[in-house]
Amino acid sequence: MNATTLDFFFDLSSPWTFLAFNNVQPILAETGAQVRWRPFLVGGVFNAVNPRVYEMRADPEQKAMKRSFGWLREWAQLAGLPMNFPSPHHPVKSVNAMRCCCALQDDQATLFRFADAAFTAYFGEARNIDDPAELAAIADAIGLDGAALLGRAGEQAVKDALRANTEEAIARGAFGSPTLFVQRAEGGEAMYFGNDQLPLVRQALVAAAG
Prior knowledge:
single chain; four-stranded mixed beta sheet; 4 strands; 210 residues; 57% helix; alpha+beta; Glutaredoxin
């Protein structure tokens, strides 16, 4: 099979993205697909195209919200992942964290390691990934210079890159995180949303690879 590309738009604040980020790994290995990790700001997406999310969050006692937390824990158990959620920091502001990711996006391997560690810090350890000190500690723990990363994350070019990624995702049809795009063999692209659509992602990658 010829390798094809998967664009994986993600925000570290999303528990379903934490699941998909991990659950997509066997699919990538099986299909030989090349992944491009694309940090974006899901709050910007919600503001632009899906503001009803905020209405749902305003009433955490509604049946759909309470059910979703239970299913989330079951999905995490199935994947063998820790899920200490919702934490005292939910819903966390992710701008600082996603700027750190965006500062690393030209080094995809390092971006993956940082995102993996940050996901675990937030969902497994209930740490506040909006806190610059926590972000620096996460970076330091994987061998990066946390202070230097925070400095880069504050640069205007990085802020602009995160905004551009978010606007690109919206233009391509995204309405939440994670959003995944597979290039179709016949042309165009297929968009998928969420952890539960990964079987469809696998199918599309296999078809695109021929």
